[in-house]
Amino acid sequence: MATATKKSSKPEQLRHTDEGRAVTMLEAIREALWEEMAADERVFLIGEDIGSYGGAFKVTDGFLEAYGEHRVVDTPISEAGFTGAAAGAAHMGMRPVVEMQFMDFVSCAYEPLTNYIATSRWRGSGPVPMVVRGPVGGGVRGGPFHSQNPEMAFFHTPGLKIVYPCNARDAKGLLKAAIRDDDPVLFFEHKKLYRAPFLREVLPQEDLVIPLGEARTHREGTDVTLVTYGNMVHESAKAAERLSSEDGLEVEILDLRTLLPLDEDAIVASVKRTNRLLVVHEDTRTGGIAGEISMRVNEKAFEWLDAPILRVTAIDTPVPYSPPLEDYYLPQVEDIVTACRYLARY
Amino acid sequence: MAPRKSAAAKQRAVHGLSREQLLDIYYHLQLTREVEQVLANLYRQDKVIGGLYRSLGQEATAVGSAYALERREDGTGDVISPAIRNLGGLFVMGARPVDVMRQYMAKADGPTQGREQNVHFTDYDKGFIGLISHLGVMIEVMAGVALTFKARGEERVALTWIGDGGSSTGAFHEGFNLAAVKQAPLVVIIENNCYAYSTPTCNQTAAESFADKAPGYGVHGAQCDGNDVLEVYAMVKEAVDRARRGEGASLLEVLTYRRRGHAEHDAQKYVPAGEVDAWAAKDPVSRFERRLVDEGWAEPTDLEEVRARVAREVDEAREQAESSSLPEPKGALEPVYGNAPPAVPWTRLDIPDPHAA
User: Which residue among A296, B145, B163, B243 sits deepest, i.e. has the most Cβ atoms within 10 Å of its Cβ?
Assistant: First the structure.
């Protein structure tokens, strides 16, 4: 195996945090992968076009030169094949990080993920410490097969963890935690946020690890609890600012960050303070996480509610390509404002 | 009967196997057959909870191929993943009959404590990884095992079997092609036993033989009589040696026959009359017995000793397994993650309380 690479030999695109410069979410993800590979030679990358090409989004740019072909493994087009192979490597003591070129293609690996990998610990074949990561989400005119949010297709499978960060800090800290976790983690990276300038931030130079399973209060508020994740955190924040200035309504935004395990305590605690709950997700409506969250709150905090639980989601169709269609399909700031006003008036 | 060989011939190894090893192969064939026979009896007594998948008539394929591996008990040897009819391979790697029986009988002290069944269990030290029912996924997993051996520079080999039916899956292709491209030390044996449940092999492939697919993948391929345990051993040994030398993956085919139904409930009405009997005449165990004696590698009394040892061991295992308990119901709360058991259903709390669920 290639030995851990020294900081001084890091390529330019990996030195932002070391040199005190702000990073985008994509750069934060790249740093997380690099640091974990440098610190632990069991960590390796596997996927399509991740080697000399550096990945479709250039996340692994420069990795092949530093770590070699046994730790940056380019594969044939075979999402099921290399996801299953990652599990085999994990059985032998490795900690694979699988890249889906687009998370839309994780459906091809549904079989090894749900039947083999998710059940392994429970079946007595040991934990499978692996991460499957890749770009998700709409709003980039990617059409129906490069824009999906497939998280809920896996949410129903006991044994998988699901992480979906919305900023550079969380992306880096959660990815490092995911790689160190002994259980399989699906890691969703919203492609619209990869290089979003407003998300550039200077990250701490020390080891940044954020525990899985903990929601984050993105904005404090007293009138409505808004539970969301991914790019909808930022759309919800825009809505919250408008509601604050135009209506004097203070919305509390809870960014789930990890969907599984779900931070039910944080949701319930916030609902008990605001007595109103709106769930917003970019994912489609039926079978979206709003349904599960609503049921949990019904079980745990029904008496605290002053209004029905509401949701704002995408339409129950594939993601359309044409801009007017996609914009109509996706939840917009206006939808969130409307929903919060409805809840506040109730 | 063929004439007995000279004393000198007795000493000569066949395929590099000593007389002791030949008797050890016989022991594992016999053990496989006897364990499955006892399981069939237990099945008829409703003591085997789920389905019983037998390898009657094809025991030589798993035993012969696993015997070609480097077997250790400390997790540093070769690694297999059996298919459902490769019980013999598990025994060769060191699995215990009592564990297999407890698995089938869903007992609390079985390797998976009643959560999984039959040969679906793992022992990384002995070098076997439990399969799941989805055919082909183990090719993907074992490709990853083999890739890891290669990446770490370990001279270890991964080996797995798949049926004629399982070879039709997309998972088979993705997993095997990956191993082939990466020249990973993976040996895949297509066990052509003429049926996938009720579907005959002619409905699985238009190829003349499964071994014909090897050149398409750019790998070493071979085919042999799966009812000749020594032929299986020799063919697999060559592929294993190649893999260990860094010459990449192999795709092998063994020709055999499934003499029982898909599982014990299956009466095989789809099988043409006389077919099972014709293959019974080619039984791999009695065939090897004759060969051992005819070649002068063993005396009939040696074989009787092996059979007596097997009978004793299997009986002990059965007694142990039968005396084991079923798991406590709350064993169902086994965590799926390392740190969080699932919630107890609120209706089953001492004081039912949905808020505490």
Answer: B145
Q: Which two tokens stand for residue A20?
A: 């005190």
| Nearest CA among A279, A88, A133, A98 for reference residue B176 | A88
| Each residue's pLDDT tens digit, B217-229 | 999 999 999 999 9
Structural tokens at position A50: 């991740």
Q: With contact defined as beta carbons under 8 Å apart, do B100 and B82 qualify?
A: no
Torsion sign, CA atoms B76, B78, B81, B83: negative
Residues A18 and A71 placed together within one structural domain of the fold: yes
Q: Does any domain span residue B91?
A: yes
**A121 contacts B144? CB cut-off 8 A:** no
Task: Give the CATH number of the domain where residue A165 resides.
Answer: 3.40.50.970
Same domain, A224 and A150: no
Q: Which of A16, A70, A146, A281 is catalytic?
A: A146
| Token code pair at residue B139 | 């090719």
Three-state secondary structure string covering A151-196:
CHHHHCCCCCEEECCCCHHHHHHHHHHHHHCCCCEEEEEECCCCCC
- Residue to substitute from B90, B121, B160, B178, interface A, most A β-carbons within 10 A: B178
Q: Are residues A163 and A236 in the same domain?
A: no
Q: What is the ipTM for the molecules in this complex?
A: 0.94
Q: How many domains does chain B have?
A: 1
Region label for A137, one of left (φ > 0), alpha (ψ between -120 and 50) or beta (otherwise) = left
Same domain, A192 and A161: yes
Residues of the domain holding A14 = 7-199
A132 and chain B: CB distance < 8 Å anywhere?
no
Question: Which residues sit opposite B251 in a β-bridge?
Answer: B188, B221
- Whether A208 maps to a domain, the answer reads no
Q: Is residue B335 assigned to a domain?
A: no
Residue range A73-79: mean pLDDT, rounded: 98
Query: Which residue, chain included where needed, has tokens 């055999």?
Result: B256
Q: Is residue A204 part of a domain?
A: no
Kindly report whether the global pTM for this prediction surpasses the value 0.90: yes
Judge whether A338 lies within some domain.
yes
d(C-alpha B213, C-alpha B226), whole Å: 18
Short-list A339, A71, A90, A54, CA closest to A223: A339
**At B317, which CATH number?**
3.40.50.970
